[in-house]
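**User:** Once you have settled down, spend some time on the protein underneath, comparing sequence with structure tokens, and judge whether sequence predicts the tokens.
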Amino acid sequence: MSSTLRPLIAGNWKMNGLRASMSEFEAMIAGAPGVTGKADLLVCPPATLIAAFAAKASGSKSVAIGGQDCHPKPSGAHTGDISAEMLADAGASAVIVGHSERRADHGESDHLVRQKAEAAWRAGLTAIVCIGETQTQRDAAQTLDICRSQLQGSLPEGARAGNLVVAYEPIWAIGTGLTPTAKDVEQIHQFIRQTLSARFKDEGVGMRILDGGSVKPSNARELLGVANVNGALIGGASLKASDFLAIAADCP
């Protein structure tokens, strides 16, 4: 991990969480002071909980709140969609865009992901842009080509270290029980860093790159210690305060 970049531990709750989940979030807030010396903490609950979680976190300032998706436009006739401005109004400071589940389930293209990242900036949010390859693409030795293409197509011009985070989440590792090795992660994150640095110069050097390959307490220490791994985007393990905080505690 680059010694100059403060890690970000981000939890993506996906389509999980009801009002009763507030107790788990409260436990995260209670335990946060023990790990915030090591990392920034971000929880991205379903949209129905963003305002309540943001209100609960406002007093502590130790856990930030994010959204899981946003529409490119600020408002309009888009039934069921949520704009970046709405997320900001509810108390979010960041939003995930281009998650592989959005790309797969909703057919989101790199172009659309780029528009969503720009929408996040418009609303003053940090955009967490996800990239990653499928098992078929991995087997065909296309990992670097896919990542290069997604970085080029999904990241807007003018990206800065302060408003953009890249999350590498190999699709083949999501919910499959498979986890990239530290060697895999090191290779891909180095490639991402080189690509960001070539395009965005010093800003690219300072952008945080998160490991989204099924990080959990049992492998967090090893993966977070890899060069150019500046934190993690966590799925299932972020639903439990004990797991989420344990991962953050393992940041070097």
About this structure: The beta strands are 8-12, 40-44, 63-67, 94-97, 126-131, 164-168, 208-211, 231-234. The longest strand covers residues 126-131.
